[in-house]
Amino acid sequence: MGESANGLVNRPILASIHTAAFQHNLNRVRELAPESKIWSVIKARAYGHCFEAALKGLASTDGFALLDIQDAAWLREQGWQGRILLLEGFFHENELNRADELSCDLVVHCDAQVEWLERFRGKNPKPFNVFLKMNTGMNRLGFKPAEYRTAFHRLHSAGYHMHHMTHFANADQVDQLPTVGAQQELFNETIAGLAGSTSLANSAAILWHRNALGDWVRPGIMLYGASPTGLHADIEHANLQAVMHLHSEIIDIQELQKGDRIGYGGRYEATGAMRIGIVACGYADGYPRHAQDGTPVWVAADDQGVICPLVGRVSMDMLAIDLRDAPHAKIGSVVQLWGDKVPVDVVAQMSDTIGYELLCAVAPRVPVEIK
Ligand SMILES: Cc1ncc(COP(=O)(O)O)c(C=O)c1O
Fold first, then answer.
1. Which end of the chain, N or C, is surrounded by fewer C-beta atoms within 10 Å?
2. What is the C-alpha separation between 288 and 349, in angstroms, rounded?
3. Where in the sequence numbering do the catalytic residues fall?
4. Which run of H or of E encompasses 112?
């Protein structure tokens, strides 16, 4: 594990990105939304999985949705000729030329962007596709319904190809306000009679609100094999595969006696004799410092491996696991922190967060292998 370009073996931590799992999850989106085109959402370095892997694994998507224009440029340099949607449009007027050269589609969510587009004279003979964003209750980005049609007509008159978009606040919850139904109704009422395709659904809507999909769906987290709710149980039957497998190794073993304590703060106290393994992974790698005792870590064995619970506070570069159920474990034994054996959502839940945050926060120092 972890051999570097100069042939030296690195610290044994590795994020393996399984492109076949990307493809599988994309196929699941197609099955669930067969009538819709797919914007694969790859913002935040493809939720921490790296753009290169996403481009390889999601090559059959209809388009990529992301935030930064330099990431769009990178996709074009790699030869991606399909659609690219800038999810927050452009942040400054001077980005428009570049977005135009790169043939990006734009989300437009505020009046300043409308004004910039009205005075923009691009070189590209094909004007931008604009996904005009409506704020139907999430109150993050977008035009209120009362302002939406004016913005639509202004950009339409300026010659842009207009489409409609909104984002759900609660597609992963039941009856939480604003509901998907209420947001969808407002959206449909507001765009009545206007031309253009629609884009509404994130992963949660694709999984659980299939009457609210629209012409273009925008899956993110489900493409990475994690849960929109943060709870693994909610996607257990959704037939998704974990794309990132975060592995490391045991680099030391300690024999403890009853009453011995582990790590900073001595949070965990041994209740009897026990063997613990020290794993080369800590919060500086992106493993959550708040992970509780008992968070599962998988340790490889000759047969199928065994889950060993985390014991003690996670430190910067290391964490400790209880090896009482893994008598075979030794220095060099491979462990999985999350992936196909340990859902990232389970680690997240034990750390009071969601899988999204853990995946996006994998540190740059963790080597990535694209499989
Ligand atoms: C506008 C928009 N659409 C789609 C997505 C994808 O959401 P998810 O990862 O929950 O599928 C996001 C992510 O936050 C988003 O901001």
1. C
2. 11
3. 43, 264
4. helix 111-119
